[in-house]
Design goal:
The chain has a six-stranded mixed β-sheet, with no helix packed on it. A six-stranded mixed β-sheet has the order 16-13-17-21-20-18, sandwiched between helices. Helix 1 packs parallel to helix 6, helix 3 packs parallel to helix 6 and helix 4 packs across helix 5. Strand 20 and strand 21 form a beta hairpin. The protein starts with 17 loop residues before the first helix and ends with a helix. The protein is α/β, with parallel strands linked by helices and 423 residues long.
């Protein structure tokens, strides 16, 4: 279960800044317990449970970086061409039969071990062959085109630290070290459901005044991208007792209970009350747009530490924004992953915008190259938090800080790509 306690958060103000929510999560949430052994082919997206220490040098021997001729730099004429006798031919996977002597060269190919006494490699296109000799030009530095043993990784050094969430390049490094499986943390278990009498399952008959549920599909995909396991509990009606029962039951077998809808202040918004009946709300409402109504809490369990709870808004765009800013760092923390801060890249605004001070806002934008080569951000025509096409027709979010009130065309803004947010 999630390593939580009822006092794991410390905020009861009216609106919580986004940075404070992330700080509280980083300081107060502990990783789930339990480890697994993952074969390399199944390790992408998992979180390392222990450091990987390199058992060998990478590469394990000096080798040629190009196709060409291995020589001794001491034999080269510093001012003119040098004629050397070709005495051997070495391909990748084979070794030279003898060490180079004065006045000799060995034909060598990319990845082949450097012959003993050879310290420099000429690219084949820079050389001329004349019978059993090769003529090389002047000017090449000693050690050129030679890869040294261990220049990528030295045996005994930490190749990958515990807490690293593994991407394909990390798995490739583990393979280069000769490893076949990795010790990883168990996956975080997330219970997911939507709330609302107006929400129905896609594929079913759509009554009047009803909407198909898109939030669960959005959230399930985002959770999976972060390497967690999802239990889909479907759609729950706006009934306080049913919600409380479902949340308490889910907390007994999961690390995080995640809902969408029902956390605002309307008469039919019962999620907050349901949580307060079985656990504790520790903050409610963020200084963020879209997505201000976000509830976060703790649901104790009869045995174990219980589960974290996050209730997201009902509008899909608000769900996306609050997930990447609140649930994403929470899931990574529960998974035992090292921090992965979101770094906004600079872009030039091609729109005007006004916002309230003291609230962080996220504007959906599409990127286009300008004539001067600068990347420009164009605001989507519709701002509504329920407009799903504003996510499908844009490239990411413009992040506008709390102290910003006005954006004019030409201003530099921070841009967060969807790829960086969901990866």
């Amino acid at each position: 279960m999630a390593q939580l306690s009822d006092d794991c958060f410390a905020f009861n103000g009216p609106l919580l800044p986004v940075a404070d929510a992330e700080r509280i999560i980083a300081e107060r949430i502990a990783a789930v317990e339990g480890h697994d052994s993952a074969p390399l082919r199944e390790a992408v997206g998992r979180v390392l449970a222990q450091d990987i220490v390199a058992p060998v040098d990478v590469p394990p021997f000096d080798n040629s970086a190009v196709d060409g001729y291995a020589v001794r730099a001491a034999d080269l004429d510093a001012k003119g061409e040098t004629r050397l006798t070709i005495v051997d031919r070495v391909t990748a996977g084979r070794a030279a039969r003898h060490a180079l002597k004065a006045g000799e060269a060995i034909r060598i190919f990319t990845g082949a071990p450097m012959p003993a006494a050879a310290d420099t490699v000429f690219m084949q296109e820079d050389c001329r062959v004349d019978g059993d000799a090769v003529i090389v030009p002047a000017g090449l530095k000693r050690g050129a085109n030679r890869r040294l043993a261990g220049e990528d990784m030295r045996a005994g050094t930490v190749a990958l630290p515990a807490g690293r969430r593994l991407a394909v390049q990390h798995v490739a490094l583990a393979a280069a070290l000769g490893l076949t499986e990795l010790r990883v943390r168990r996956r975080v278990r997330v219970a997911l459901f939507s709330t609302g009498d107006e929400i129905v399952e896609p594929g079913s008959k759509l009554p009047r005044a009803a909407l198909y549920d898109s939030n669960r599909y959005l959230l399930a995909g985002l959770i999976a991208r972060l390497g967690a396991e999802v239990t889909d509990l479907g759609i729950l009606s706006d009934d306080p007792k049913e919600l409380a029962h479902a949340i308490a039951g889910a907390a007994a077998a999961h690390d995080l209970v995640l809902t969408s809808g029902g956390v605002s202040t309307g008469e039919a918004d019962h999620v907050r009350g349901a949580i307060e009946s079985v656990g504790r709300i520790v903050f409610w409402r963020l200084a963020i747009k879209p997505g201000r109504p976000v509830a976060m809490g703790v649901v104790p369990a009869q045995s174990g530490a219980g589960a974290a709870f996050v209730g997201l808004p009902g509008n899909p765009v608000a769900v996306f924004v609050t997930f990447v800013r609140v649930v994403r760092p929470l899931l990574l923390r529960l998974a035992g992953a090292l921090p992965e801060p979101l770094i906004a890249m600079p872009a030039r605004a091609a729109f005007s915008y006004k916002k309230r001070k003291g609230r962080r806002e996220y504007v959906r934008v599409a990127l286009r190259p300008a004539a001067d080569g600068t990347v420009e951000a164009f605001k989507h025509a519709q701002d509504g938090a329920g407009v799903i096409t504003s996510l499908t027709e844009t490239d990411g979010l413009a992040e506008l800080a709390e102290d910003v009130t006005t954006i004019e065309p030409g201003a530099t803004i921070g841009f967060l790509s969807y790829a960086s947010l969901v990866g």
